[in-house]
Amino acid sequence: MEQETDNMRSNKICKNRREEAALFAWPWGNLHSFKYLLYGPLVARVLYAVYIDGEVKNDDWCLHILMLSGLRAFVHQLWSTFSCMLFVNRTRRINQQGVEFDQIDAEWHWDNFLILQTFAASFLYLSFPSLANLPIWDMRGVICCLMLHMGISEPLYYWLHRLLHSSSLFQQYHWLHHSSKVLHPYTAEHATFLEHILLCVVVGIPTLGTVFIGYGSIILMYGYFLVFDFLQCLGHCNVEVFPHRLFEAIPLLKYLIRPPTYHSLHHSDMGTNFCLFMPLYDKLWKTMNTNSWDLQREISSRTNSRAPDFVFLAHIVDVMSAMHSPFIYRSFSSIPFSAKPFLFPGWPITYMVMLVMWAKSKTFLFSFYYLRGRLFQTWAVPRFGFQYFLPFATEGINKQIEDAILTADKIGVKVISLAALNKNEGLNGGGTLFTNKHPNLKVRVVHGNTLTAAVILNDLPQDVEEVFLTGATSKLGRAIALYLARRKVKVLMLTLSTERFAKIQKEAPVDCQKYLVQVTKYQAAQHCKTWIIGKWMTPREQYCAPSGTHFHQFVVPPVIPFRRDCTYGKLAAMRLPDDVEGLGTCEYTMERGVVHACHAGGLVHFLEGWKHHEVGAINVDQIDVVWEAALRHGLKPL
Ligand SMILES: [Zn+2]
Ligand SMILES: [Zn+2]
């Protein structure tokens, strides 16, 4: 604890120093996303060339700089995708923690270095016009460039890096790179302006050197920078990708290439492993971490990852929101989902992926977080919302859910919570299908809707006397109606089925039955200002509500708000406890740190250690019990 306070204090000191240190911040930092306008002059020149000559010539250096920048960003994106694909890499992750929102925000502008290097390259081309006349390819250049890289850039980087770890330079600059707790490919570029200027020198020596010696070529330029970025991302990807046998078969490799574990040790033990890509220099100057190759062997030979304690079994909503995955755009998945224009080009590809998933894919690990030392995972059934409404698809979906439950049971998961449509009444009776079929399950199957009901009910005004309820005979509608009737609140239940209404009414205590009233038209609620909506509503139906009505909702997706003179509630949700760790993705449209109430319901079931399944109809007696338990465990209403 004391050490933590020290860390916090030194962070503060570092942050104060940040303001003092020259060349710490990026000159275009205040432009935020408008910084991309800085590419404008180059783009304009390329467009102008097309306009004047009708084509872009091969010697147009502006075009090459732009294309290389794009490709370099793409290399980072591919590595980010790989690093976030937990279903591919979970056994070989080096740091088992998750990347948190703070780190994602800090690394948001990881691509600043591309703008800097674009400026540097443009400046060089303008200063040395001969640079624009490089041949496509010259074999001799590769050898020359490699020699300059290995002989000058590597040792230069090594000593610059050691210098940056001297106490004053570290506190002024290099702490920023080391402030990222869990390495990610973007962390590779998360450094100060000054450090990236130094890096320009490191990459400039082999490339410009080769050109000035006379062996430069266009392919060499592309190749060097792309390989450089590839190796930087590799070092920071937080997944050990090399089999240890490779280093045992070719021991020389241990001096030529740093595997991801090697650089991760530099981040955990800062006095060691300073090299750029070649551990040779750590060996030479005796800074190689003695644990480097044991850790590499240990992690690369892992066959199992830690089993989670709790699983939230989600599904994909639609093609657009499928692109809200961390392995597509990490930054985008760290903010609540909403359809953005930049997603549209990805729609056809995602649609194709959806078809492939339908044919082949199994339930996969999507995201995770830790709470009080326990591991909580979200698994995704590879099915989209619309598929749940195709009669011929339901059997396949239930098979997916059943397989997930049986897997969870086998690996020792305590609670599996079914999300959204995975517990659809018509699909599997709110989960009863599985608990009936497998009576000896050790894992508890939970729909979590008891807490959903509790959240909706606790959102109602304390002194409410009358509510209007649609979707009134659904699982949630029934529980809400019965709970309110017991509290002597009059419930206008919209349903055409007198039989279903009567069945629910009979469940209420005799003296409370009179509070449940069947209505068949929206007009019946034209004087009631508290509407609880469990069914999609047209604008015309919304206009039946009196001015000033508040629409509470449990309909998925939520209704489109048409009334300016009314207010609309959001879907039932709760904020996770403050001590949650490793959280860096938003659950669909939820804010950061907020989860759907049914997710929270499963969590409470786990934290309480309850031994019953929570499937089928909601137990009205449990609503207050679950609500109080949720608050006790630190979950918060919004
Ligand atoms: Zn360092
Ligand atoms: Zn690093």
From TrEMBL:
Pfam families associated with the record: CER1-like_C, FA_hydroxylase
GO biological-process terms attached to the record: lipid biosynthetic process
A molecular-function term among this protein's GO annotations: oxidoreductase activity
SUPFAM superfamilies: NAD(P)-binding Rossmann-fold domains (SSF51735)
One GO cellular component term noted in the UniProt record for this chain: membrane
Database matches in InterPro entries: CER1-like_C (IPR021940), Fatty_acid_hydroxylase (IPR006694), NAD(P)-bd_dom_sf (IPR036291), Sterol_Desaturase_Related (IPR050307)
Domain Fatty acid hydroxylase: 147-287
Membrane topology, from the record: Multi-pass membrane protein
Keywords recorded for this protein, A-Z: Membrane, Transmembrane, Transmembrane helix
Family recorded in the similarity comment: Belongs to the sterol desaturase family.
PANTHER family xref list: STEROL DESATURASE
Protein name: Very-long-chain aldehyde decarbonylase CER3
